[in-house]
Design brief:
alpha/beta, Beta-Lactamase, Rossmann fold, 3 domains, ten-stranded mixed β-sheet, 14 helices
């Protein structure tokens, strides 16, 4: 975990940690942050040994570790570390992008033209895209970096195929564009698969949602309600869905279905992730495995909860079918208000009937604010086909969901549903607040 610091001054350091042999700092810069990378010192002795080692590798293909041993005999211990770092960075790694590819604290990083690499950091996602001190000097260097990352990920990018999307072996998603065909500059954006996904307590700490609202949604998913989390691009839909699924009991079986891996429940023993196989060419369409096929397959695994990464088309029909026979379901939807959500659900290609829409219990709307922060804006409860607003961020009003109390009353006799819901939401909210106090985030400057 990154070490948070609190020293005062113009160049205040908010966090400092290691990525391999490199040091990373989040440093205050004007009203924003700078992602500062400090790599091992490249002395004259290291440069000379590095040049010799690289020359031998090109001519003879010698193993890099053997090259380190051979050319480090006259170097100090710190210079040996530097030689190994730069040699492996260039021969087996990602050159200037090495730290970005291996830093688990980064959500996304991008280069769209020569200049500094920009990124979104998990300790400060509300700062949006922040600059780094790693600079790509020219279009030629950018071309090489784009090709390098895609080739090391097992793909290729050429003028004949200038737009590429590929997954790295660690499931990071790489989107690359080669200049000259469809763009003025080459570009690359890497969405990093979350090794340490956001907890619900962290979202409470960041102010994404109140502890009471978080507790109610957690309880709703646990009670196998059917939940849609809606919002526009970059609003944090999948992050919220992931955090809710992480809260589920260990004896639940959770099947997640996605086109690209973004949900990460690796610490949950009941997690079964399924990924669609998309056609990479017209000839490969017959071997594709769509979300609809995966949903039907998921039902044979007796899941407690089925979560679809993002609902777009007819897979919603299968999800509602699962809901009708008692499975809990959760998904995200690209829309920003209730009316538009209902229209999307009832129109082509989803084509839900009104009685099917009535099976959806809760709709959660999340937005990205002008300052970059994510906020749960509204939560609606569906009572017999009528949507009732139970939480509104602007007014701060929150009403306990009726269905939660009704479901709890089935298991706990002797208490009124409202009383049961109030007690359980209060208990979980207090638990989340206690956990949130231990979470580390960078405050807005």
């Amino acid at each position: 975990m990154a070490e948070l610091r609190g020293e005062k001054g113009v160049s205040r350091i908010f966090a400092e940690y290691h990525v391999g042999d490199a040091v990373v700092r989040l440093r205050q810069r004007d009203n924003g942050l700078l992602y500062e990378v400090e790599e091992p010192a490249l002395t004259d002795g290291v440069k000379k040994s590095l040049d010799q080692a690289m020359d031998e590798y090109v001519k003879r293909g010698t193993n890099p570790e053997e090259l380190v041993k051979k050319y480090s005999r006259r170097l100090s211990s710190s210079e040996v570390v530097a030689l190994r770092y730069y040699l492996l960075r260039e021969l087996r790694g990602f050159s200037k992008l090495q730290v970005f590819m291996y830093d688990d604290q980064i959500e996304d990083f991008t280069i769209t033209m020569p200049g500094p690499v920009r990124l979104i950091h998990r300790l400060a996602p509300h700062y949006e895209w922040i600059e780094s001190n790693v600079v790509v000097e020219s279009d030629e260097e950018l071309d090489k970096l784009v090709k390098l990352v895609i080739e090391r990920s097992g793909g290729s990018i050429t003028p004949a195929s200038p737009v590429v999307e590929i997954l790295t072996p660690s499931f990071d998603r790489v989107a690359g564009v080669l200049r000259g065909e469809v763009s003025l500059h080459s570009s690359i954006t890497v969405r990093k698969f979350p090794r340490s996904p956001y907890s619900l307590a962290r979202l409470v700490k960041l102010g994404t949602l109140r502890s009471e609202v978080a507790a109610a949604l957690w309880l709703a998913v646990e009670l196998k309600c059917n939940v849609i989390i809606a919002g526009l691009t970059g609003s944090g839909k999948t992050t919220l869905l992931n955090s809710l699924l992480l809260q589920l009991p260990k004896n639940y079986k959770i099947v997640t279905i996605e086109e690209h891996p973004e949900i990460n429940l690796k610490d949950h023993p009941g997690w079964l992730p399924l990924y669609a196989r998309l056609p990479t060419s017209p000839a490969a369409r017959q071997t594709a495995i769509p979300l609809t096929q995966l949903l039907k397959a998921a039902l044979r695994h007796r899941p407690t909860i089925i979560a679809v990464g993002e609902a777009r088309a007819e897979e919603v029909q299968d999800m509602i079918t699962a809901a009708s026979v008692g499975h809990g379901t959760a998904t995200t939807l690209h829309t920003d208000d209730l009316d538009h959500m209902v229209k999307r659900l009832t129109s082509h290609p989803m084509n839900l009937r009104q009685d099917q829409v009535a099976l959806i219990d809760y709709a959660v709307f999340i937005v990205r604010m002008p300052d970059g922060r994510r906020r749960v804006k509204e939560v609606y409860e569906n009572i017999s086909g009528k949507w009732e607003l139970i939480y509104d961020y602007e007014s701060g009003k929150f009403k306990l969901p009726e269905k939660i109390g009704q479901k709890l009353a089935i298991s706990y006799r002797g208490l009124e549903p409202y009383e049961l819901a109030a007690l359980e939401v209060r208990r979980r909210a207090e638990q989340l607040r206690a956990q949130a106090r231990r979470e580390e985030v960078v405050a807005t400057a």
